[in-house]
Amino acid sequence: MFENTKCECGHQNPPDTTLCESCGKPLGEEALSDRPLEMRYDGVARRSQKKNPNLIDRVWNFFSSVKVAVVLIVITLIGATFGTIYPQENTFINFDPSYYEENYGLPGKIYYMLGLSHTYESWWFITLLVMIGASLVICSLDRVLPLYRALSKQQVRKHIQFLTRQRVTYAADLDGDDEEWTRKLGELLGKKRYRVTAEKTALLAEKNRFSRWGPYINHIGLIVFLLAVLARAIPGWQMDQYVGVREGEAVPIPETHYYVKNLDFEVEYYADDELPDRLKGTLRPKRFVTKAELYVCEANCGSTALEPVLRKVKEHDILVNDPLEYKGLKLYQFDYDTTPRLKAIRPVLTDLKSGETYGPFELSILEPEPEYEVGPYRLKLITRFLDFTVNASGEPANLSNQPNAPAFLFLIQGPDLPAEGETFFYFPIPTDRERFGQDLINGEMAERFDIRVTDMANVEFTGDVSYLNVRVDRALPYVFVGAFISLIGLVMGFYWQHRRVWLRIDDGRLTLGAHTNKNWYGLRSEVAAVLRAAGLEADPKSLDNGGRNK
Amino acid sequence: MKGRERKITQIVILIGILLLGGYAVGTTLFASDGDKPKIGGRPPAFENVADIEGKLHSLDDYKGKPVIINFWGTFCPPCVAEMPAIERQYQKYKDQGLVVLAINLSEDDITVRDFLKRFDLSYTILRDKNRMIERRYALRSYPTTFFIGRDGRIMDIDVGGMADEEIEQYILRLLET
């Protein structure tokens, strides 16, 4: 049925309007009570409430509710705390699923099975973020449009009830000319930087309306922020991985067409006199730097056999927090490994019977020659192990493909030896020689020959390994833009308050009403000051008409 | 806002949220394992990989054939233990078009050469470098063997050493494709 929503001033209001859009007269339920007016959105109908909301309306109303938004935020907060219980998957360089069960037992196992090891990338967490985003958009739209309409078309002369039921109100009888009083009060308000719109015997003084848009600008900023965070899912927009580069080597950066070369790695440690007592004698790095070069691979990039064609694009000394940057790619100094590994040695061959020493000869650990001539003897390389061990079947084998415990099996031929030669096992590293019992293995030959490095100058180590953290984050600038917009909105909303003062003078009777969105104390103070300056008796407390908060 | 306009705006916004949100949630549901080779999926390609004689091979060269890709290293005892079994099964089925590519885990020349001297292997040994292929195949442990059908899709993935019977069963499945 059609409700009669026409106000006594003649204006036709949409249904559910609580204060007449034109004169401000309380309508409907609002008219029945005596309490201070509900001034949200100036009483304008916020939503058209249909009798039978369809699906779209229902979804819209759901997201438009602030209660729902608060609930969503609380659930997201609780969900986010789950991700802080155990370290997340993405904090590991080489993630191993058994980590949780191994370190935390059954709770750890359940944690991993529930997917909580990647809480912030899980579908339900992202869904919550999307819902908060939806809520941000819909809540804001649903409120900003009616507010804008209400504030844009404001009437100057308001209904008496509108004025007397404001939370700040004043009435007095005046002597003198109505128009003169109006003009005078308008001037005084103008001095307080109000923008005054006056009719002959009524005026509206308003200031800082822009502050009302603050929360909405804030929400726009948050939406941009959220979209930027979600944009990280776009392929190529985010990368966070690690590469280890040995001095002198160039390694490919996975998932890119780049290669990084470690020209030189240096680490400086604190001297003892720079360290506090309890740390003296420890090896504390003071500064470590990788002189690095970045190359772009132009051909043969994925090949393991063909040499890649590289073109240098950048060079930089990478220090902690001083990365090499190139087109959004950043290489940070992360870690290093200076564990010395043998690269080459120059041992001598000693004939124990005659006491003669032959050599030294150049023996490369990684790329040894098949044969060496040392003095009158010939050393044929039968085989070489990089990481010697004896396996379960008692046979010599490699423990890994890293040169941690090199061993050489030679066939020695020459004078006073059988034609087919004699085998000789050589372990360059003395501790390995002990460990594996080189002399025992070589039997009689151990009394005949010895191969040994006599001078540390004849030992060459491989270069240090530098670990770099490779990062790409193309969404970051937009995150900052969103945060900045948010901040502007907050500043707008918090540092200024929207104040409005209406007054009308009817045959010497002044009726005044005032409203603000925050800081009523300040408003009352200011209005009282204006009234006093006009010569009227008023103090802030007397203006107070009650209401929800002070 | 007039009813009609309002309705359109609501629909547009809700659709926008659905698309963006759907994309965001979709990437979390589907992307995480996207790069790892899975059963039913395609094996990651590799090109111009050298064998022990220096000849170059690409995975594409074997299109349409049943292929076994076995990752091995001299430092991996179960890899070494299963090699004779692989050789035996290869001999049995190579006339039916079976191809075996044994990709070594980035070890150096001498290690691989010396090691192979101890075995009599007739199948193709390929050399990975800098763990490139290994990474593409997202290997977690060794040995890992991929069985690829004639249709070019991964039929089985076996992690750990295999015995003759196991290998034979996998091969028979491959030959059915």
Textual characterization of the structure:
Chain A has 550 residues and is α+β, with helices and mostly antiparallel strands. Chain A has four domains: 46-150, no CATH class; 158-208 and 497-543, TATA-Binding Protein (2-Layer Sandwich); 238-340 and 464-473, no CATH class; 343-459, no CATH class. Chain A has helices at 28-32, 55-64, 66-82, 99-113, 123-152, 160-164, 178-191, 214-231, 430-435, 438-442, 445-448, 476-495, 520-533, 540-543; strands spanning 168-173, 195-198, 202-207, 238-246, 250-252, 258-269, 285-299, 309-319, 324-326, 329-337, 342-345, 348-351, 357-358, 363-364, 371-374, 377-385, 388-390, 396-398, 407-413, 422-426, 449-452, 459-461, 465-473, 499-506, 509-516. A five-stranded antiparallel beta sheet of chain A has the order 1-25-24-3-2. In chain A, strands 4-23-10-9 form a four-stranded antiparallel beta sheet, with no helix packed on it. A four-stranded antiparallel beta sheet of chain A has the order 5-6-7-8, with no helix packed on it. In chain A, α5 packs antiparallel against α8. Chain A starts with 27 loop residues before the first helix and ends in a 7-residue tail after the last helix. The mean pLDDT of chain A is 89. Chain B is α/β, with parallel strands linked by helices. Chain B has two domains: 1-32; 49-176, Glutaredoxin (3-Layer(aba) Sandwich). Chain B is 41% helix and 18% strand. Chain B is built from five helices and seven strands; from the N terminus they run αβββαβαβαββα. Chain B has helices at residues 3-30, 77-93, 109-117, 132-136, 164-176; strands spanning 49-50, 56-57, 67-72, 99-104, 124-127, 144-148, 154-159. In chain B, the strands form two sheets. Chain B has a five-stranded mixed beta sheet with strand order 5-4-3-6-7, covered by helices on one side. In chain B, α2 (77-93) packs across α5. Chain B is elongated. The mean pLDDT of chain B is 87.
